[in-house]
Amino acid sequence: MDTRRKLEILADAAKYDASCSSSGGVRRHSLGAKDAIGSTTGSGICHSYAPDGRCISLLKILFTNACIFDCRYCVNRRSSDTPRASFTVAEVVSLTLDFYKRNYIEGLFLSSGIARNADHTMEQINRVAQTLRCEHGFRGYIHLKTIPEASPELIAQAGKYADRLSVNIELPTQQGLEQLAPEKNLRRIQGSMAGIRARQDDSRDRRKSANTTRQRSALARERVFAPAGQSTQMIVGADKAGDRQILKRADYLYRSYRLKRVYYSAYSPIPHASALLPPKSPPLVRENRLYQADWLLRFYGFQLDEITPEGEGDLPLDIDPKAAWALRHREFFPLDINAAPRESLLRVPGFGVKTVESILAARRYGSLALADLARMRAPVKKALPFIIASDHQPSGLQLDSSRLKQQLAQPAEQLLLPLQRG
Amino acid sequence: MFIQLHAKDFASWRIQARDMLARQIQPDCVQWMDTLASQPSLALEYDADCRLPDPPAKLRLAVPNQFLALAKRVACHASPDRWNPLYRTLWRISVEGDRSLLSKPNDPDVSALALMDKAVRRERHKMTAFVRFRRVEVSPAPPEGRESYVAWYEPVHDVLRLAAPFFRDRFASMNWSILTPRASAHWDGRELRYTEGVGRESAPRDDELETYWKSYYASIFNPARLNIRMMEREMPRRYWKNLPEADLISELAGASYGRASKMVEELEVPRSRPRPRGAPDGSEHPSCQSPDQIRWVAEDKTLEQLRDLASRCQACQLCEAATQTVWGEGPSAASLFVVGEQPGDQEDIVGQPFVGPAGQLLSEAMESVGLDRTQIYLTNAVKHFRWKPSGKRRLHQRPSPVHVASCQPWLAAELGAVRPRVVLCLGATAARAIAGRELSIEKCRGPFDDPALPYRIVFTYHPSYLLRLEDTERRARVYREFCDDLKLASALAEQ
Q: What is the ipTM of this complex?
């Protein structure tokens, strides 16, 4: 089979992984270095967009799509009759370099089916990364998928070459995994994440405690363990788990293993799918609501119980989770933008972190009116019923109105978030 | 008086603006225009009929760096209106003395500049994303086997000079040129050079790798999630003409409906095939669901077997939010057996007891009284980490009596396997697990003998209690007492 056909099969097999981010981690460049190529900028670049609206930042491929596992939601499961292919290490290395030199990509995202056994596959993945880094002086971005079943030494080696590592949890509960991914095990997956965090902590602690010049220079030569951290993915809508369960697991993973990102991927029908699975994707807007809720948890100071109150399993699809909270807590509003503290302003529907920072900066020099908000390009329309400005006072009627919800509801596609970031 | 000026780029505008400022020309009296292509001169050209005031002999201008950086970017904007708000802002900062002007995002001038700045930054970013190099063979071949690449690009704003350093830093080991209608940038490994703009025909037309790139682009697209609007928002149509993969967009988008619905038709009935050997499976062994079950399975097991059984324990709720069961550590024939409360954040991650801050303090104290930690069996009363969310972290939460009771059979099994002479209880939770009731450590610190037990007990503080004490005097006293208790336990164990 020629490389181009393999590329078609193994890119097609990799497309269900939502993550494509090339962000986070250290800044590197190859200026002044001999026999080196590549750089990382810290924030990542999307070099193209596919017609599904997803960013193409990395060469995202599987090393092989042969797999001994039989996860029902996966196109590469053992019992599927999808065409199979395997790259060689040399093929992946040269494709990565050729694409990179033409500025098509930021680097490589290499994942794989589990051929033969976990250690064998992990070794192949590591060899690709090692060849790129050590033989070709590649300084671009490398994201390696680590296989939870692989031995800890191999995962440690992967972290030496990769910017980011990820272990996919796929489903938020052990019951879900037992039903759809019988060979996977939540405890082992989380144990693997814990192992990655432990090595990161260790790498960081040793840098912190290096006192002498000699210690520091020895550390400077050593690669930082996975400088862009770790991420994971959860499939939404393949099992029965509700949004609260999904977010609870995500919150738990962020706290416990310092994950950089949890990706939510709406289950998408795959060719030759198992009949245990729903024949249709969940509405894509559900995926977006989860991302919005995830952002609220991480950057807006919301607690899980505020976003998905106990007893309410799913996020509403018609309004965003912040607006939903505001509607449940009308007594919290209206807020005076000239006086309210940062953490309260962050709860105003429509206001993002940037808007709030602008308001805080601007109000130090004088009282703000609606025109000021417009000049700062703050999205005012959604916020109007909830805020007081020097020339604006929402009528009490408005906040009590049952029509407020309709006002806040927006056509879903306007809310699609880009997947890059973070 | 009204002055009309022509600026071509940031450098020429800067000279003019300094001159205007020096002559105290109000922003209302001056208007900048772009230099037209037919006006090659960069020199100051004032309209003849105005009499400018003379500049002072010495001009001292202090302009914040933040403004200069902003002005350099805004100068790249395609709008002919960019110079005037720049001069007005400069005037307000330097002449009117409003040094904090740039931190007022609601100011009309600052707001207008911010909008242009954002457009320029975005254009620069898109250039780093959408430039596509094509490989060329040049003769004579460049030294050291350097490869040569050329790209053609048409930025809306004049961002070539802003973006070129990015390509230099990334592709330092290649020779490359980026050609645009306004100017071209070249890198040969030593310096970035800029030359005149050229036409599209000067750029190479093809690169054989583009067929691979297009194959990749077509394969990575998921037809079940077609979302052209999202794609166009991030990759507007005006960029498409220079992107080789963009040729495929309409074809892929058009065919996607059929592809997605075909998949629904092909739904498979699950077939069961034998699971291949070597497929790991954690669910084959039953897990302990209750303390009674633990007592049942734990009988006559070695420490290693117990550890394995405990790793799957679900006798209380704690296993759901913890990473792993943190089992005890130490020689199976240790004479001193230390019981703590429960694993903390770091113990939960690493899977070993007493590796966090409290564990370090314990090691320190042991060392100071001459105890060898490796000769002691260390474990916890509760073996899963109990925590509650706090900020972005996990905050330690004391285990409840239910958790202690659920986990007690494991502790009993460990005691049965190790058969120590002395059990040292750290803190009230350990005391509850060993003595079966709530005790105040302050009151019953020290040795405790129960003739019914095959070991002696020593109660002392938990090291994390010491860490929490803020009063240094009190802390020193408690630390001394803690060390005394360690010494005592060690002495009893050696008897």
A: 0.93
